[in-house]
Amino acid sequence: MYIVTVIFQVKPAHAAQFMPAMIANADESLRCEAACRQFDVCVSLDDPHRVFLYEVYESAAAFQGHLGMPHFKAFSEKTGDWVQSKTVHAYTRL
């Protein structure tokens, strides 16, 4: 399995807009992408503007496919200015 983690630092002025868009993107990923096995959206207990994603895909190719999906592209375009920073890491499950 191919694991992706993402940490978003959301601009406080856009937090209320960001979360519904993020949850919709996660739901669409699970519904439309058979190779997306898990997509968890978490919020930091210490900082409500820090959002952590834990995503599980069948392969690196499946994740690349995710990046090309219309719902992902729409989410990324819509929320780009709402994000202060974004850190992405990839892992393989042993």
What does this structure look like?
The protein is an alpha+beta fold and 94 residues long. The protein is built from 3 helices and 4 strands. A 4-stranded antiparallel beta sheet has the order 2-3-1-4. Helix 1 (15-32) packs antiparallel against helix 3.
List the helices and strands and how they pair.
Layout: E1 2-10, H1 15-32, E2 36-43, E3 50-57, H2 60-67, H3 70-79, E4 83-92
Antiparallel strand pairs: 1-3, 1-4, 2-3
Short description:
With 94 residues, the chain is an alpha+beta fold. 38% of the residues lie in helices and 37% in strands. The protein has helices at 15-32, 60-67, 70-79, and strands spanning 2-10, 36-43, 50-57, 83-92.
Beta-strand content bin: 35-45%
Q: Provide a count of the helices.
A: 3
Distance between the termini: 8 Å
Number of DSSP strand runs? 4
Mean pLDDT: 96
Characteristics:
94 residues; alpha+beta; four-stranded antiparallel sheet; 3 helices
